[in-house]
Amino acid sequence: MRRTLTCLLVLAIVTILNGRQFRCDYKYFNKADGWLKLHRIPANWREARLRCHLEGSKLASPLNTELAAAMRSVAQQNSLKCGVFTGIHSFFSRGDFHSIEGIPLSKIPHTWAEGEPDNLDNAESCMMMLDSGELADVNCSETLPYLCYKKTTRTALGDCGTVDSEYKLESRTGSCYKFHKTPRTWSRAYMACAAEGAHLAIINSDTEAQVIKEIFAKHPGGSMRGFFWKDVAFVGFHDWGEHGEFLTIEGQTLEEAGYAQFSGGEPNNATTGEYCGAVYRNGKFDDLWCENPYAFICEKNPDSLLCDDNDQQQ
């Protein structure tokens, strides 16, 4: 009996650790073999898919009865009677529905809501799940809450409080940084950093500018794929719609933040529209077009994704 209790205790501890190994804003569901996170703020399907992807998960689909039950439980607990988006879509071929993971709808256990599917106005290429667990086809441009799902994997938190090994702790500043080589617009870069529990890097000193310069040097242009300018990267300042004055994403002037060194001749608002903050390889600032995609740098507090004792699992 004692040995049995010991084994059960060890199993419980392992389960708790596994539940805390991904992210604290996700809940671990043992029967669903993974973590779920509810996004209550409605988004269209594309935005929902991207947000989950940037968080390191996938837009949840009821792939099996256990995962469907967990999704239904979250929806019911949060009174989401109007339903949530699933990751089931037919973007690549109209009428051929597959989950984000590529599983065809025919292999996903499901029950249709009354009158569904109806492909209203020949414009419904996404799927939603009602709190009853029934499915309905829906226009992908509609806005709905959604769930992100991360299947159980063997992961471990690094020095930066995240399973993302690309974040590296810098002792000179006490912050962690990640250089994103996949180019995005400034707003998408902001979204990507936020999804990772971080923010677009804010340079607060000459020392931090040197750190950014060294990080940039580790990523020569040849290491980045795509046709975009590779000697600049978005960071965390913007004109906030008041063209001419730049503030950090935390509302400080650059001087208040501790570093305001622009490269020679910058900011110049070339051809009008350079309202977003960036940094050159030399560590000096530049103003850039917000809607053009560039590399970007995220910064995070090492403790920002660590769990506390009140985190729960189901």
Characterise the protein shown here.
- Mean pLDDT is 89; it is low at 1-20.
- The protein starts with a helix and ends in a 14-residue tail after the last strand.
- It is 21% helix and 25% strand.
- It is elongated, with a radius of gyration of 22 Å.
- The protein has helices spanning 2-19, 45-54, 65-77, 186-195, 206-217, 254-257, and strands spanning 27-29, 34-43, 58-59, 84-89, 126-129, 135-138, 144-151, 168-170, 175-184, 199-200, 232-238, 247-248, 276-280, 285-288, 294-300.
- Strands 8, 9, 10, 11, 12, 13, 14 and 15 form an 8-stranded mixed sheet that branches. Strands 1-2-7-3 form a 4-stranded antiparallel sheet, with helices on both faces. Strands 4-5-6 form a 3-stranded antiparallel sheet, covered by helices on one side.
- The chain has 6 helices and 15 strands.
- By secondary structure, it is of the alpha+beta class.
- The chain has 2 domains: 24-151, Mannose-Binding Protein A, subunit A (Mannose-Binding Protein A, Chain A), CATH 3.10.100; 168-300, Roll (Mannose-Binding Protein A, Chain A), CATH 3.10.100.10.
* Fraction in beta strands: 15-25%
Major sheet size, sense and barrel closure: 8 strands, mixed
- What CATH architecture of the largest domain do you see? Roll
Kindly provide the name of the CATH class of the largest domain: Alpha Beta
Shape: elongated
Helical fraction: 10-25%
Low-confidence stretches: 1-20
Radius of gyration: 22 Å
What series of H and E elements makes up the topology? HEEHEHEEEEEEHEHEEHEEE
Structural domains: how many: 2
Rounded average pLDDT:
89
Number of strands: 15
First-last Cα distance:
26 Å
Structural class: alpha+beta
CATH superfamily of the largest domain: Mannose-Binding Protein A, subunit A
Helical run tally: 6
- In CATH, the topology of the largest domain is named Mannose-Binding Protein A, Chain A
